[in-house]
């Protein structure tokens, strides 16, 4: 499931090709995904110019000249495919729910086989009041996400820190992968009670979260060529995680230290957590 760095990478890829362009056509293949797509959605996009993009948590907002913002959530399996005016178009993708074409011949499709994604429309000046966005916590890469802010949000919480960091009201954009990575980097056990991370450990955790996300974004792509894969899919390269999905593999921090059994896996709230049992306290 795409987390903040993947969504950021997809958004930058869209921005590189759509910003400033007028949409000649937008068409929906169905009226709903995870939720109903608002009636008139395609008509509102058609003829509008794309002015800018914004990411909020795992959501992409595409702003249009008429004052609308399009909300895009990739869900579990959603992806965007982009083709230029001189590309040979592949056969129509199954599960392509939205197609947008620019006046200069670019074509962007939203493909989502499992339909956990969503598309919505709202006035740009009311983005933050949207039902899915209004309760969101701080953006982890913003300067206002500080150890003090995280400490205040975690104070007295009795859930494990792993669960707290997945809670989008505490901090947005993190999922199972980057929570495991950031906790490893900060040396904090995923099982530690969130309330006990406030203070000194939050001063380790906040920079660990920021560095983990920044490195993943940097690995995702630095030019349009990086963003667009040969099949037109706007995506990201799965880069080298230090703990995620590495159960039983050597731990980078401990090396050959016999005290570390290697990267270990536990299940918390039904989801896997990967960590070093030796150094994460
Ligand atoms: Zn270790």
Automatic annotation (TrEMBL):
Keywords, in A-Z order: DNA damage, DNA repair, DNA-binding, Glycosidase, Hydrolase, Lyase, Metal-binding, Multifunctional enzyme, Zinc, Zinc-finger
Cofactor annotation comment: Binds 1 zinc ion per subunit.
SUPFAM superfamilies in UniProt: Glucocorticoid receptor-like (DNA-binding domain) (SSF57716), N-terminal domain of MutM-like DNA repair proteins (SSF81624), S13-like H2TH domain (SSF46946)
EC number: 3.2.2.23, 4.2.99.18
Catalytic activity: Hydrolysis of DNA containing ring-opened 7-methylguanine residues, releasing 2,6-diamino-4-hydroxy-5-(N-methyl)formamidopyrimidine; 2'-deoxyribonucleotide-(2'-deoxyribose 5'-phosphate)-2'-deoxyribonucleotide-DNA = a 3'-end 2'-deoxyribonucleotide-(2,3-dehydro-2,3-deoxyribose 5'-phosphate)-DNA + a 5'-end 5'-phospho-2'-deoxyribonucleoside-DNA + H(+)
Domain Formamidopyrimidine-DNA glycosylase catalytic: 2-117
SMART domains (alphabetical): Fapy_DNA_glyco (SM00898), H2TH (SM01232)
Superkingdom in the source lineage: Bacteria
Domain FPG-type per the UniProt entry, residue ranges: 242-281
Annotated binding of DNA, by residue: 95, 114, 157
Gene Ontology molecular function: any one: class I DNA-(apurinic or apyrimidinic site) endonuclease activity
Requisite cofactors: Zn(2+)
Single GO biological process annotation from the record: base-excision repair
List of catalytic residues: 2 (schiff-base intermediate with dna), 3 (proton donor), 58 (proton donor), 271 (proton donor)
Complexes and interactors: Monomer.
Purpose of the protein: Involved in base excision repair of DNA damaged by oxidation or by mutagenic agents. Acts as DNA glycosylase that recognizes and removes damaged bases. Has a preference for oxidized purines, such as 7,8-dihydro-8-oxoguanine (8-oxoG). Has AP (apurinic/apyrimidinic) lyase activity and introduces nicks in the DNA strand. Cleaves the DNA backbone by beta-delta elimination to generate a single-strand break at the site of the removed base with both 3'- and 5'-phosphates.
Family to which this protein belongs: Belongs to the FPG family.
The protein's name in its UniProt record: Formamidopyrimidine-DNA glycosylase
Organism: Acidisoma cellulosilyticum
